[in-house]
Amino acid sequence: MFKKIIVYCFVLTLFSFSVLNNFRELVIKKLNEYTENYPEKIYVQTDKPYYTMGDAIWFSAYLVNGTDHKKSDKSNIIYVELINDKDSIVSQKKLYTNNISAAGDFEIKKEWKPGNYLLRAYTNYMRNGSSDYFFKKEITIWSFKTDEVLKNTNSESSSNIEISEVTERPEIDFYPESGYLINGIPSKVAIKVKDKLNRNISIEGEIKDSDDVIITTFKTYEFGLSLLNIVPKLNKTYYASVFINNKEIKYPLPKALPQGYSLNMKNNGSEIILKALGNSPIGLKNSFLVAHQRGKIVYEKLETEAVNEYAVKLNTSQLLDGVTSFTLFDNSGKPVCERLVFIENSNNKIDVNITKDKNSYKIREKVTLQIDLKDIIGNPISGNLSMSITDLDIVEKNSRNENIKTYLLLNSDLRGYIENPGYFFEKENDPKRRYLLDLIMLTNGWNRFIWNDILYNSHQKNDQFKIEKGLYIAGQTQALKEKGQGITATTRLTFLDATPSQEIKQSSINGIFNFGPYVFYDSIPTLIEARVKDFKSDAPKNRDINILLRNNNYLSPLRSHNNVLKQNKFDKTVLTNFIKQSQRVFEMDAEYLKGAQKLDEILITAKLKTKEEKREEELDDRTSYGGFQTHRLDINDITGAESLSVFDLLRRLPGLSIINDSISIRNGGTPRIILDGFPVEMDDISFLRGSDIEFIDILAGVSASAFSRGGNGVVAIYTKLGNGNIKNIKRQPGIIDFYYPGFYTAKEFYSPDYADSFNDNSKQDIRTTLYWNPKITLSNANHKAEISFFTSDTRSKYAIEIEGLTEDGVPIHHLTTLQVD
């Protein structure tokens, strides 16, 4: 009997080890799949943190592999959008990059309203994940009313307040180091204190047990953070005791579990010392520890002995910078505790060197800068950079602001808002900074990793949103007289530009065709033809085909409020100076244009067309019946129309009755539906939304009689396919022609050359952005870049801010100054 028990235990041990080893292999396999099918990240640098009406937003968008921050080999197209506080996309740029970044700009239209806007950037492939991972940055566009600045800004340089300023009960949250307190196991507990206005609070308190015995004390520092050490005991509970206005307030700590696991961590910079602990009957036996950086495995340990603890020392000299996650799985493969650590490897340090040709400059004087990057031992480094230079008296910039380094290494991988993230990268060997950064790791959970998704969902699934390498022109060929019936056909696409080109494809059995990818920047006249048989056939009804372009299915403009980079608290004086100077620039530009447009001795008499009249003419030009419609619905007049369905919009027109997906006119008849001048059926318009539609006309009487079967009236819908970019589509059986828009080409930032005698020196130069360069390349052939520009008429100290990435994916942020006397 005894021998049978021994054999049984031996077999059970082998079985458990086999199961555990299979789980270890699963974790490693899935993490490797994650890095091979990596997510993408985008960061956008703007020339300024805030703007005024009539200004321009200059930006550079960086697209990277989300695991190592090198150039992404997936997408080549970046979408950058500006969204107002009504959740409407006011402008979108489609940018192409075959490198790591793309330049762009937004012209702030005078008809836009001041307020907080959302700058959002993503790729089509990123849409397969949560929109929380899109780049999102809050940007304020101010009016010229400085009293609004005084009313709506906070001049405090920090949001920390003293406990004496607190009038209501503050919020105190506790974060045990590994997720739970365990009886008998020493644990660190991070503390975060805020009030209802989300201000950090400097506070002192005591930790007491259920017998009111003081166990330890605590005191919060910057960002309302603190740390305490505790060893929970059986049958004891604990609370924090804080006195506010001479009144004790008690905050209970999480209740300790009788059994469990813990990861205790000490980060010494050059090495990490980790202690794993477990107090179950088998301790840590059959547990599995894995550490990874953004999916890349840096350490793993399979424990086969029944030990209650073990220690690990991990050298960081070969690791990337950023958040590293340590996860302990129990013997059933369940993640039981996790600890985040921030790696700062001194070997990854990059020096940004800016050499000026002078110590200081005069107004309208040429400035020449030499820029280069060097690693820790002085070797030149290749990289891609962007640069903004702004007046520090009107544009507040400091090293604690959000930048590409803080975003890629902190914000994009952690949950929640991180205030003044640049603080955690300011002083290289500051113990206090490192201490507070570790508290950020304890209080902000891992954002991108949910282990069930990683382990048990396939990363090689057929993603709904495909990787885009260029522009695609897609649609469907349909039988002319069949209701929405897709049929296979021979299709031919022709670009009618300076060098015409053609491509022929057979549409699918359901009529789906897709041409591309193409890369071009100007709108190109485009022709798509289709034939039932082929283009050589003279068979009757060979051209009886309707061609419909496929909607590009752009994102809903509704903004996600998660992981948005918030505005910093700006100094009121600096912000007021900026608005006043921006107003002067605006007024000078208007006056200058007025003077430049004066005509000598010419009298012109004409009626000035209003903006509304010009809009009506623009819409009338798209129709065959001019302005003789009975009713018209202009999408520009509908707030939030982008998110409405075509049926929601039709309900706004008088005389129409919409029941489910059917349309009837007042007399009970069914109207003829016209889409971009071509008769269609209900199924052909059911997919349309407000973001696809330019305007809708209702025709009756003579206007409707111009269309066959228009006796019951006509509903004429005119689209702006491609999110408002493809216009003036002309249709007839077997053929469709239109102008297809290329990628957006960024405008060139205007930088005057005062050495050129032809330059107009009479106009005062007080621009708020002195210089902007979105693409500075340091290649293997030339490790230095030379930048030249002229100063303006403003004597001040200017901030030179450089952001970018090395070829090896190391993010760079550098801030220095330039003096103009």
UniProtKB/TrEMBL annotation:
PROSITE patterns: TONB_DEPENDENT_REC_3 (PS52016)
Subcellular location: Cell outer membrane
GO terms under cellular component: cell outer membrane
Alphabetically ordered keywords of this record: Cell outer membrane, Membrane, Transmembrane, Transmembrane beta strand, Transport
Its membrane topology: Multi-pass membrane protein
InterPro entries: Plug_dom_sf (IPR037066), TonB-dep_rcpt-like (IPR039426)
Family assignment from sequence similarity: Belongs to the TonB-dependent receptor family.
UniProt protein name: TonB-dependent receptor-like protein
